[in-house]
């Protein structure tokens, strides 16, 4: 049952299959979100170096296609559990640059209001549930959301991202098994960026985890994780499968972590040649080259994104730090807290397929 | 009013809340077709169907984690651990995902985790534990432990309706041993303490099965007037009720079935030391299970669990102090 398709391209490609479900505007949007993710993360790294981002800083440089491509295929009513290398998914759902940067800086206006840092957030106002540091935990949460959708007979799908290291944890097994037994509408995105902190995949597993999907009774598909359009297409198909009642799909997004585990990590344990090889497959360069071939001038798009990052930075820096007096507030939900409508709010779903009624 | 066992009262609360609220579903191992290891959900699958009385894979992290997912999209799952001891396998999902979700990102996790807990029947080291203190130490979880049939039902209904994760400890040794009048229909028991017996010479503070041990031990204690406070809720802890009783009697004995170190009773003792020192007329005494695993063989197990005699002895010492 397991199939392997769309093996990672060996070099920057010109022959990549463009999904017939993407319009030119969709493809431009994919590039815009990837540029925005990279721009915000680069800005956040600068803010970190200036001492404005407490703790450490984690990014998804070079992995932008994984979150952007996959999240672009998700509908407004779908639900997402997003990993810390996947800022693009939050941007697609509608979280603003200012709130992201404020989140990194621990400001009151950040998504968690300073209660958690980095990309440890999920904005329920846009249909996301925030991750915890025990990364595969969210596989079970996504599975549970899918279980609720199925029980209520809703046409909705859950998606979650996790890394190669996560495949060693028991929660990976419990979620894959559970979703397989109950044939749940969930898409598992295994973001294989070759390293779990300093541990290479050869020390993580003896068998490529995409092969394990078969053992749980559903397909495992390996996708070029540096190709946003390939990620979109694989996720779109997996979601269709889920909505048709055919159960989960494991997508292995093959990519590379181009920065250290976090800002403090110089990544000495990764051979330089490996990084250089993957730099040639940069997901932004690849999509931009394709769009230029299609006659798109990407210059104004880059300008637009730069302006959005600048404006977001200014807005975030103007936000106050949280009031220390509130540190023990809101441990428990009280009936006076946010109204029910916000808790069940949907997110943005910019793919043209949804505008055409394809949700 | 109807006379029910503690176990029947739990079943009644679950059944009635499920009839009223279709968002409530039960998840656990062997709870559907088999009706649960203790038969709490006997007959439920026939009434509510396999979707709402879910026989899950043998996966405690899976049970708690998927319940969290179902809860954040609007369901109200009630998870059963077959024995409280197995919650260690779902600990991470409960403590890191469920407990911290609301504080971190404002998303309430409306789950109830039922933990059949406690010893006294040769369950051995893995079927006898009282793990409540683990969860008292994890901010974001509420922890309750009924001692009577009426409270077993009312606290459970209250727990299911609470928008926060609630750990509900049901003592296995009370399942069929405790019987009482239970109110008909749906009612909520607040997460506060109750005075199980009024008294003026000494306060004994307990919860769960130890409330019965405390009542029995002090029923006829050389004519002394002994107050017994049933905590019912460990988080939130009813500070006012505890301090009010201490002010009244000036002497306190705290009984835990859990292992002694950092147990719920230790927190109660600390609270009294901090906020009622001037009201005390003797040391705060504790009777708890020594810090070893619960052994299998009856004489070994009985040597450890707080007994009526040990409580009597400690109470007498305090009364004479």
Characterization of this structure:
The complex is a heterodimer of chains A (about 350) and B (about 325). Chain A is of the alpha/beta class and about 350 residues long. Chain A has helices spanning about 25-50, 65-70, 85-95, 95-105, 135-150, 170-180, 210-215, 230-245, 270-280, 285-295, 300-315, 340-345, 350-359; strands at about 80, 130, 160-165, 185-190, 195, 200, 220-225, 250-255. Chain A has a 6-stranded parallel β-sheet, with helices on both faces. Chain A starts with about 25 loop residues before the first helix and ends with a helix. With about 325 residues, chain B is α/β, with parallel strands linked by helices. Helix content of chain B is about 35%, strand content about 20%. Chain B contains 11 helices and 14 strands. The radius of gyration of chain B is 19 Å and the shape is globular. The interface of A and B includes residues 79, 140, 171, 337 and 343 of A.
The Cα radius of gyration of chain A reads 19 Å
Tell me the number of helical segments of chain A per DSSP (H or I, 4 or more residues long). Answer: 13
Point out poorly predicted stretches of chain B.
none
**How far apart are the termini of chain B?**
43 Å
Mean pLDDT of chain A comes to 93
Order of helices and strands of chain A: HHEHHEHEHEEEHEHEHHHHH
Inertia-based shape of chain B: globular
Note the beta-strand portion of chain A. 5-15%
Q: How does the helix and strand content of chain A classify structurally?
A: alpha/beta
Please give the share of residues in helix of chain B. Answer: 25-40%
User: Mean of the pLDDT scores of chain B?
Assistant: 97
Order of helices and strands of chain B: EHEHEHEHEHEHEEEEHEEHEHEHH
Low-confidence stretches of chain A: 1-12
Question: The biggest beta sheet of chain A, please?
Answer: 6 strands, parallel
Strand order of the largest sheet of chain B: 3-2-4-5-7-6-12
